[in-house]
Amino acid sequence: MSFTSPLALLLLLAVPYVLWLGWPRAARLRGQRRDRLSLGLRLLILLLLVFSLAGAQLVRAADDLAVVFLIDASDSISPAQAEQAEQFVRQAIAAMGPNDRAAVVVFGADALVERPFSPAPELAPITSVPQALHTDLARAMRLGLALFPAGSARRLVILSDGAATVGDTAGAAELAAAGGVSIDTVYLARPAVAVEAALLDVRAPARVSVGEIFTIEISAYSTADMAAELRVLAGGAVAHAETVQLRRGDNNFAVRLRAAQEEFARYRVQLTPEQDTFFQNNELAAFTEIVGAPRVLLVAADGSVNAEGAPEPDPAPQLHLALQATGLRVDRTTPANLPVDLGSLASYASVVLVDVNAKTLSPRKMETLQSFVRDLGGGLVVVGGPQSYGMGGYFGTPLEATLPVEMQIKDQERFPAVSIVLVIDRSGSMGQSEGGLTKIQLANEGAVRVVQLLNDFDEITVIPVDTQPNQVIGPLPASERAAAIERIRQIGAGGGGIYVRAGLEAAAEVLTASANPIKHVILLADGADAEQKEGVPALIEGLRAAGVTVSTVSIGRGPDTLWLQQMAELGAGRFHLTDQAANIPQIFTQETTAIQRSYLIEERFFPTQTGPSPILAGIRATPPLYGYVGTSPKAAAQLILTTHQGDPLLAAWQYGLGRAVAWTSDATGRWALEWVRWDGFAPFWAQAVRWTMSENRESRLETAVTYAAAQARLTVDARDAEGAFLNDLALVANVVDPSGQAAAVSLQQVAPGRYTADFTPGAEGAYFIRLAGANGTTADIGQTLGWVLGYSPEYRNLDANPQLLASLAALTGGRELAPAEVDGSATAVFDHNLPAQPAARPIWPWLTLLAVLLLPVDVGVRRLVVSRADLARAWAATFGRVLPQPTPVPARAERVTRLLDAKERAQTQRTAVTPPPQPEGSPQEPQTAAEKRPSASPAAPPPPAPGTLAARLREKRRQESDRSKS
Questions:
Q1: How distant is the alpha carbon of residue 899 from its chain centre?
Q2: Summary mean pLDDT of the chain
Q3: Would you tell me which CATH number, out of the four given (3.40.50.2000, 3.10.20.70, 3.40.50.410, 3.40.50.11260), belongs to the domain 63-190+800-835?
């Protein structure tokens, strides 16, 4: 027996006191017996409770066997090896006994539990996908040890090629041996590598100037002498190509290139040998920042026809010329061609969006813009127009999160109450997946954003339709948005097509009962599956007569697209065509903002300056403007210029490491006609754009990233303009991984001017690092650099390591098993040849229960007196009915009978000794001297007093005797 809380056993010191306190002191023997029994019960109850508090448990060994299979799933394991390992585990588990349990762990750079411990004799297909960049066998072993249950023999079975690239494998094996865990190993042999060539390293300078000639250093390895083609690609174009001669062993090459233009250049080096086994290790890359005059990316429509067939006016010709006139290098692109990768944007100091509609930017592009500003310290300037801000569907997007203004204005005096009805297609086609979400889920998200954008006094109704309206939500006030949103997210796809007339009839019924002054219907339908069109034009005409407008959205171009466009024109609404369901949320919010009308303010006004800013340096007065898009300033924003209604006109703020500026008017002749003619137009926009640029791009930081043992080390050497070390800097690095996730790491100073920090890359690809810092005397410094994690290190060392597996088995007393198809040794995994580990099982609950059951027994012993007669009556009332017994003589009557018999005998003896009395007057014989002496025998007891129990019994006995004689 053992105890989990042995300190509670100190309560046993109270036992002597309880024994002394309860020891019986009565004089009667019978009372002492009962008191002693009660005292014994109390002591037993006390012991049981103390042992329960101490966590009593029994320790015993059981014939149970627990096995954890560790399956290597790193990049060095081929599909054939993976199938071989899975087949081995499947056969082994099928041979489990009734007392056996098995678990499965799949590992690479990390370890995942594929199957927890289970007695089931079958293995489901393996689905876990760990990070395959490394083989961390030590982590997998520690995870396996943590899974083992207590009280069973324990065995680890490792299925691997033995090529552990990271981790303390020997230490993990020693831990297993100390815990009595046996390790069996199954070597998964790699195919023989005849000839192999691989790139080992590519080094390029972190920063060069335009026109500078720099060198890319390349290291390669080959197992044989052969020729190979070496190419360097920059931006998809071949910057250098040559044929090189590889020698057996290490090879070094140097490629000289010229920096042509300012950009964040990525150079990819490719090696194509004559003979090779693995192609995965034939490409590496490096980044170089080519600096020069700051570059700006201008994003605006180019005047071409959009996806809906309408011409897009060019909103940025004057702005483009103004920026170029101030010495900025401006590259121009359209929203459709805006780069989606962070590396391309990193070449620019700032990005300018001019009247860009959110539906022309994918969510991924907006997330990239957000990361460019927040994580890399880039700049962003958003210029307004009729297709921007709330009118352009910015609400709820990453673009709104980046800007210093919100898209919503909550002012009932400026915004009349709105009743909006969303007729949403929920036909079978809406169940199709797009980007990981179904079309109906994206439509639901659009409806949610509409609810969030409406004011509390507005009204919302959502009508999902296939062959009929189904799961109708509302009409509800927008103040109940939480309940509405919960129900909207539960809408699912149905079947068939959308019956347009049924949906519009349901919408007309809702809007007829609404008293709000503005009423609007948004019809979302599949461009190839809109049915029941008969009677719809007349219905829409009736709605228009009642003051209801109708807009339509066509998902995809189909035979019904033109009809949907005609219905939008008939309903005095807008028509939207999108071939991407991901645009539905932006379209819905754009429609909601448009019908509220007050967001688009087209009035003449003069801007009002509300705060100082470098953007207005040298500007004392501004011309009037003729319109803007209404927004609200965010709490942390700097409001620089406002409109005549107090809305933001020019706002700016710091967002993460970068800066963003919002201009809610436009830069064309529509609203800024007099600004375009104004002499300060070019300086104003140049100052706005330059304010968003990082002021520390020219800081002298020398950076390098090295990679070893699954860890990347960032090293920074900081110097001032004279070359002196910069010490005591608070440097922080934002590391953006290939998926766009950012993590901040702090650098520690390790030498004069030198700072280092470690981070763990989790995937292959390009990493962008933004350095920023300052001290008390030095201005802010910073730098952006890139680093590429090339092919998996599993392809760097191509040698297997069966010796490691053998050493693990020998250290723990395990075995080296062969794959299942070789000798069928998989069944040996569950051999019961290991000593079972002692298992502790708690018994304190049973001890507590026994103490509770003994408590009423103790009370009964102390409070109740039970005689033999009571026991006899209890017997007769219970078992006596089933088992008849001779009627016993009552104990009291038997004793009285014996007493009466004794008295009878005594009376008889007294009668025989005492002479009969003489009659009076009769002569008496003289007595002798002896006779005169008193008799030594005791006198007979006096007869019982009349009326006593003894007298009555004697009389009754005499009467019975007389009756028997007669």
A1: 92
A2: 83
A3: 3.40.50.410
